[in-house]
Structure formats: C-alpha cells, structure tokens
Write a structure and sequence with these properties.
Order of helices and strands of chain A: HHH
CATH architecture of the largest domain in chain B: Orthogonal Bundle
Helix content of chain A: 55-70%
Radius of gyration of chain B: 19 Å
Shape of chain B: globular
Number of domains of chain B: 2
Number of strands of chain B: 0
Number of helices of chain B: 9
Distance between the termini of chain A: 150 Å
Structural class of chain A: mainly alpha
Radius of gyration of chain A: 49 Å
CATH topology of the largest domain in chain B: Rna Polymerase Sigma Factor, Chain: A
CATH class of the largest domain in chain B: Mainly Alpha
Number of helices of chain A: 3
Oligomer: heterodimer
Largest interface: A-B, 29 and 37 residues
C-alpha cells in the first residue's frame, strides 16, 4: 500500500471510529450519582476544614497560655554580675594573691657625723 | 460554547440548577470524548462523573468565559489519564475469574446486543485500539483529540498549554508511528 493510500485508510478508520465510539444517552443514575459524589467530596473537605480549624485554634491557645505563663511567673533573682565578670574578678583575685605588691625594706644605715 | 457565561456565574455562586444545566449541555460531548479516549465503555460514566465533580469544585478558578470549553476538555483529558493510570495498577477481571452465573448472564447480554452494526463498530474500535497502541498514551490522546474529536491546533494548544509548532511535530510523529504500525499489520 502506498503512503498516501495508507494515509487515507487511516483517516477513514479514525472517522469510522468517531461514530463507532459514540456514546448514547447516559444512564438514569448519572445525575444522582454525580450529586452523591459531589456531596461526599464536599463532606470530606468539610471534615478536613474542621480539623484544620481545631488545630489552628489549639495552637493559638497554647501560644496565648505560654505568653500568660511567662508574664505571670515569678521573676528569677537578679544576677549581680555576669559569668564573664565573675571569671574576670576571680582571676584578678588569684593574681593579687600570688603577685601582690612587693614591699621593699630598705636597710637603715646610720652615717656617723665624724667619719 | 454550549452555555452562557451567566449560567456559569450562577453555578459558581452555588446555584445547583445552573450547574445541572451545564452538565446537561455538555455531558454527551464529554462522555463521547471519554469513550473514545479510554476504550472502556463500562467506565465512561464513572470518569464523566469525575470530570463534572472536578468542574463543580474548580468553577471558582475559571477566569474568562472564552476558555471554558478548552478548560473542560483539559479536565476531561486529565481525568482520562488518571483513570488509565489507575486501570494499569488494577488487575483486569477476565472471564476465567467470573462465576458460572456471571458468564451465562454476560453471554446472554452479548447475544441480545450483538447486531450487525454493533459488531462492525466493535471491529472498528478494536482495530483503532490496536493501531493506537503503537504510540504513547499522551500521543494517542493528542491524536484522538485532533483526528477524531476534530479540535483545531489552536484549541489543542490552549488545552495542552504548548505552542502550535510543538503540537504539529508531536502529531506528525504520532501519525507516522500509527502508519508504520498499519504497514506492519498489513504485511
């Protein structure tokens, strides 16, 4: 078969296929089943929406409670000096123990006035 | 477009009657398209209901009335893809799996429906199904939309969101593969 003849055969076949695969009237249940499907999907999405709302409300409540707790809880005793200051002071104290000011005692010479 | 945009607007606002009218206007066309795309008459209404359910929940996303037909076609093609993907995973029921009673009732139903025209149509469907089996699922759908459904390149470009030249190339290649399969079959 030549290429153009094959082309024509394919066109005819596809045209015949359109008629052969024509779909008649849908069954009587088509619309009721369609609405049942829509309703079922809608109720599923409503359940998801409710769950999402519950989780969001819960998260908000936890955040608020934490905020209130932080505000009302007794404040920790004030720290007078920071850790760094503490370390520095300790170092200084140690240094002063070992390398304290040297006290030089000078010998007392008495120079006699006659010499 | 088979319906007025005002009807779509009403359906979008939750008017069930308006939505019913849209379904009535489009259902034969959509079911016909599905029937030609999925090759399984028993699943056509199921896929059709899925298409209209998706339409119901996404009407709000429709921006312009001009794009409604292409948009609905796109939804139809996507639902067909999803169905074919599911069907590939699902084992097909064969005669050997059916009970004796089911086989007898299937036989008698077949006997009642088997007219001359129907058997010819069935032969055409089988032939096309075999030939289009030579191309990928995407190309097969594209070919059917163009050659069987009669959509223009412009309409297809709107559905597939690709440019017309790319579509032309894909269609040409798909057609060449089908012709090759035809040649092999006739040899």
């Amino acid at each position: 078969m030549s290429e153009s003849a094959q082309d024509q055969t394919l066109d005819r076949l596809l045209h015949a296929y359109r008629q052969a695969a024509e779909y008649g009237e849908p069954s009587a249940n088509f619309m009721p089943e369609l609405w049942a499907r829509i309703e079922s999907r809608r109720s599923t999405s409503v359940v998801f929406e409710r769950l999402a709302r519950i989780f969001a409300t819960g998260a908000l409540a936890v955040t608020l409670l934490t905020g209130v707790y932080m505000t009302l809880s007794p404040a920790p005793p004030p720290v007078e000096e920071t850790w760094v200051e503490n370390v520095v002071n300790h170092q200084l104290a140690q240094r002063s123990a070992y390398f304290g000011p040297v006290q030089v005692q000078t010998a007392a010479y008495q120079i006699s006035p006659g010499k | 477009m088979l319906v007025e945009f005002e009807l779509i607007e009403r359906a979008r606002k939750g008017d069930a009657g308006a939505f019913n009218q849209i379904v009535h206007a489009y259902r034969r066309r959509i079911l016909g398209t599905i029937s030609r795309l999925i090759f399984r008459p028993e699943d056509v209404e199921d896929v059709g209901q899925e298409v209209f359910t998706r339409l119901y929940f996404s009407l709000e996303q429709l921006r312009s009335p001009d794009g409604f037909d292409a948009w609905l076609y796109r939804m139809t093609v996507n639902a067909c893809y999803d169905h074919l993907r599911r069907a590939r995973r699902r084992p097909e029921s064969r005669m050997a799996d059916l009970s004796e009673h089911q086989i007898l009732s299937a036989d008698s139903a077949a006997g009642l429906n088997a007219s001359q025209i129907e058997s010819e149509r069935s032969a055409v469907r089988d032939q096309v199904s075999v030939l289009l089996g030579a191309v990928s699922e995407q190309d097969r759908m594209l070919l059917i939309m163009k050659e069987v459904e009669g959509l223009s390149l412009k309409e297809l470009a709107a559905i597939y969101k690709v440019n017309e030249n790319a579509l032309k190339v894909r269609l040409f290649r798909a057609r060449q593969r089908v012709l090759k399969a035809m040649g092999n079959k006739s040899v």
